Fold this protein.
Amino acid sequence: MQKKVTIIGAGSVGATTAFALLTRGAASEVVLIDIDTEKAKGEALDIKQATPFIGNCDIYAGTYEDAIGSDVVIITSGIGRKPGQSRLELVQTNIGIIKQISADIVKVCPNAIYIIVANPVDILTYAFLKYTGLPKNQVFGSGTSLDTIRLRTRLAEIYNINQQQVHANVLGEHGDTSFVAWSNATIAGVPLSEFKGAIVSADYTPSEYTREDVETYVRKSGGNIIARKGCTVYGIAMASTHIVDSFSGSADTALTVSSLHEGEYGISDVCLSSLSLVDHTGVRSIIVQNLADDEIAKLHKSAEALKEVIKNVNF
């Protein structure tokens, strides 16, 4: 399927996402836009020279005018998080960047689906919706999709099981108040809490772990990677690519993306991640799961933390 994707921001995340999109066949045409035009040209040329081994696809650096006709726009622009810095500390500077981008890009791509990746992603998704007035299905953030794949990776290690058979989700803010929805976690359809006991005819002992340790692993992974190498790129690039790839399917895909809540779980006027149905039109619906009472409380706590930031931000 032919799909044109524009990526705004040709830094490490933007360039890696472009490469992932093309190698996975999730896009046939990618436009890289960056205030540093030479950087965008260099990244596009570097990736373009790998495309003979990929297939029929194209990538080039351009301007907002080159984005016309894009099916999807991914926004990665923003000041990166420094070691020891929380995502929410980035907010005011990156709000200003999003404001300028929104004014320029929506003029030429009013019908595109917008995926916000820059951090703090929940706040910037809310800001983009506020600035553009686009329908809420067209605008959402990568949210806890990255946290969720970190969770599934860790659980797959613990249980020594194929990662694709682990179904567990991180909900809430992409940040300090995120949490694992343990009540709905399964492996191959078997509730996580029952999986070890269900293996009855083989010598099977998963690694010892506590839920608190797993949640800490997920929540602190980004900071730990940044402290060691300065940025995180591969996980978010593949998460973003998976989201774009889901637009081409003949059926809906359930993803933990950050979208505007309007009463779901009793939460309104804030963007955060709960499980959502995604198709070629964007977010079709939030899936209201039967979460445990303590998980509902954690989701509300996450919403309130984000609302407190929104209240103190200068839009």
